[in-house]
Amino acid sequence: MIKRKLVKTRTLTPGMKIDQAIIDRLGRVLVARGAELDEYVIDSLLKLGIMNIYIQDGEADPDEDKIVISKAAEKKIEKLYTEDRSKVTLSNSVRKRVAEGIQFIYSGDTSSAVSDATASITNDLLDAIDSNDAIAIDISTLKTSDEYTFKHSVDVATIAMILGKQQGLSRKQIYEIGVSGLLHDVGKTKVPLEILNKPARLDEEEFAIMKQHSVFSFRMVQNNPDFNNEIAYAVLQHHEKINGSGYPMGVNEAQITPYAKILSVADIYDALVTERPYKPAFTQRDAVEMIMSMTNELDMTAMKSFLESMILYPVGSIVELSNGEKAKVVRNSPHYILRPIVVGLTSGKVYDLGSDLKCANVIIL
Hints:
The chain is of the alpha+beta class. Helix content is about 40%, strand content about 10%.
């Protein structure tokens, strides 16, 4: 079994495999997760000031991913299988355009071409939502880039647009929320690499610098006449909390723009489920439970829209239950985001995790 181990960079030896991605301030991957280290890469990490990194420790079990489905299970799966609600999907051509456009946006260019690229991506995302009247999202299907900052920006924009649609906002408002999502982290291009790539908790001084990224983003957006104040303040306030505990200004619910309330939920969820240099990814279940616990920090309308929009366990996916059995998801409900109907692959037993009280003690791990 492969485990994750944090080691000092100076103790690395050629042949070890890195278990995190190393990115630059533009979000570009300098060293991919899973890459085998050599002397040149190790020396480069030290020169970048990266003093600790995660490596892969151990070996993979070749039989670990083998899945066997019993005849009884196959019959139940076929009978109960219900397609998910319409989800946002991106064609290969759109993915390519979005990937190229988002890299340009985060290149540091301040010309009007950035406005054009942002508008183009947002319109592509809006068309993707409209094309099949999407009302749900599975972020694992988006994958516009392997580079965190780019992917995260597209994820946040898309999630936020779906939440806006769930709330019945106008097409213009949904468009502006999408633009805000794409630009919310552009200020990270001003944050030093050693802070962006630090594989451990930031100290107070480093965190103070990191928190300035939303101010940097705000200034970059505000200085562009193609973006209005609603977009600029959504970018500025996406880390604010309704109880005043957020940053950079510590404002409360009444002072936070509606767009920022939506962006905040989308940003937190996507950050939690994405691996970063300083932390492994949380499971989708853990991320949703963390968001559900933040009732004193996040806007309830935005949270409700989020819970009704996200598909954590797409129909057809294999999950592991707390009773030790693997199961296939056959039906989802927007009211029970964490508890779909599944069928045990070995027993063929149907687990209605959302409605059947007999399944109350069974969860998806």
